[in-house]
Structure to design on (240 residues):
């Protein structure tokens, strides 16, 4: 698998070989990688060269280094289309995964300036604030804070928000959810995100803000979420 006569650098050949093994499933998500020493001895190349190949694959998100444990094949990212206005529960069920939420807090607070603006309410109007960890097959995927007008969405309970908010809004309250405006930006996970998403220092997250409206144009929710960038990949269809 390594051709020392080739003009291609040796680290590049090894990187290409490992990439192939990951793509064809010979190395599966979660599998431990042999150590740098083993590769170096087996291929009679330097450990520096092995490290270069592995570092490139870590940087590309195909491998993960775990302190004191070694290097592993990364989990595949969940691919999420940004074309439909769906709920977390719907997204996970559509993938055959089991959604679950851990409710971190649930209270009624007076809307501050930003929340009031996003929900087209007067400042200090009561809004529900709920913080949830969203899990798929028991793996934490996102940390989410939802603000919703308490006068519009009545009767919310901890039980409701521990399952599906959209289902309650549509099926129990009969409100028609229309469209949303969403933004996304990259950030490094802060301490709260690291604790709840079980990621290490320096891990990347995708910060998403969603402002959802009912079909009649009334603002329904303002949501701030942090998605694990190591587990999520968003795709968009674009037309010319
Ligand atoms: C998604 C939405 C969030 C919505 C939630 C409802 C994004 C960025 N966020 O997580 O706005 O409140 O679904 O989910 O997509 P539920 O019906 O499962 O409670």
């Amino acid at each position: 698998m390594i051709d020392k006569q080739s003009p291609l650098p040796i680290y590049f050949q090894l990187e290409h070989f490992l990439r192939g093994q990951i793509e064809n499933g010979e190395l599966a998500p979660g599998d431990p990688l042999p150590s740098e020493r083993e590769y170096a001895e087996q291929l009679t190349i330097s450990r520096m060269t092995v490290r270069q190949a592995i570092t490139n694959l870590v940087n590309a998100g195909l491998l993960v280094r775990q302190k004191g444990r070694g290097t592993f094949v990364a989990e595949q990212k969940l691919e999420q289309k940004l074309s439909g206005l769906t709920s977390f529960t719907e997204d996970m069920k559509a993938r055959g995964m089991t959604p679950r939420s851990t409710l971190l807090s649930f209270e009624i607070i007076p809307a501050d300036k930003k929340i009031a603006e996003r929900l087209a309410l007067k400042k200090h109007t009561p809004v529900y604030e709920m913080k949830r960890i969203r899990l798929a097959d028991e793996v934490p995927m996102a940390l989410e804070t939802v603000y919703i007008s308490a006068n519009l969405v009545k009767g919310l309970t901890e039980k409701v928000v521990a399952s599906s908010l959209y289902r309650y809004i549509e099926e129990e309250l009969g409100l028609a959810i229309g469209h949303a405006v969403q933004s996304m930006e990259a950030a490094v996970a802060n301490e709260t995100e690291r604790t709840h998403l079980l990621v290490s220092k320096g891990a990347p997250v995708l910060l998403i803000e969603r402002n959802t409206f009912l079909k009649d144009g009334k603002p329904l929710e303002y949501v701030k979420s942090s998605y694990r960038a190591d587990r999520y990949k968003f795709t968009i269809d674009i037309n010319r």
Summary: The mean pLDDT is 94. The beta strands are 63-66, 70-73, 78-81, 99-110, 126-136, 139-149, 177-188, 204-214, 219-228, 232-235. The two ends are 43 Å apart (CA to CA). DSSP finds eight helices and ten strands in the chain.
